[in-house]
Specification:
With 217 residues, this protein is of the alpha/beta class. The protein has one domain: Maf protein (Alpha-Beta Complex). Helix content is 30%, strand content 22%. The chain has five helices and six strands. A six-stranded mixed sheet has the order 2-1-3-4-5-6. The longest helix is centred in the C-terminal third of the chain and has 20 residues.
Length: 217
């Protein structure tokens, strides 16, 4: 069964591929496989709304079951910023480093609990007929005053999840994919995906050797 990940973000695609690997029947594609497709502009006011728009539009336009996510970093002390604007916090076309730099500037006077924040991820699953399911996951932690680590992407070098002493950018990929907000959201989606795959996979019944088959003779 083909499942489309509605993004051209190679980091997100890599994470989804890794986390979906246990469902071996899934043939995971991304928007990189459909260069002529143009996604809709993200106009939602929540992560869930944006994920739904992306999933439904891609599923109907490309006639494929589609997963789409919208995620970002939320800092309550900044009234929820960067939030849904995480990818463009420093302006349209901003790089990850630009966004991190702006966040550090905005948080420069914050201390202790005011530096708490969380990553939130909403994942929407759509068929060509429309929306099927939406799930959300959260990873809570603290925002550092300096970057650490060279892995991950986005705000990963600044975020340390509660209960850990390494940033998401310092953790190995397997560990991050086990504890991340995207993992938590996808874990809630997996039972639905597994039942979907099971329903679309024809059963292959092999009779036991001692079973007597009716020949009609």
């Amino acid at each position: 069964m083909i499942i489309l990940i509605a993004t051209r973000n190679i980091h997100k695609v890599r994470e989804f591929r890794s986390m979906l690997k246990p469902i071996s029947e899934l043939d995971v594609r991304s928007l990189a496989d459909f260069p002529s497709y143009t996604p809709l502009e993200e106009t939602g006011t929540t992560f869930a709304e944006n994920a739904i728009v992306k999933a439904v539009h891609a599923a109907q336009a490309l006639n494929l079951w589609t997963l789409a996510d919208d995620s970002g970093l939320v800092v309550p002390a900044l009234r929820g910023a960067p939030g849904i604007y995480s990818a463009r916090y420093a302006g349209e076309g901003a790089s990850d480093s630009d966004n991190r730099r702006k966040l550090l500037e905005e948080m420069s006077r914050l201390e202790d609990e005011a530096r708490n924040g969380f990553f939130e991820c909403s994942i929407a699953l759509a068929s060509p007929q429309g929306l099927e399911k939406v799930t959300t996951g959260v990873a809570e932690g603290v925002i550092l005053a300096k970057e650490r680590g060279g892995g991950g992407f986005g705000y990963d070098p600044l975020f340390v999840k509660h209960g850990y002493n390494k940033t998401f950018a310092e953790l190995d990929e397997m560990t991050k994919n086990r504890i991340s907000h995207r993992r938590k959201a996808l874990d809630k989606m997996l039972p639905f995906l597994e039942s979907l795959v099971a329903a679309e996979t024809p059963s292959q019944y092999i009779p036991k050797q001692d079973e007597k088959l009716t020949t009609g003779l």
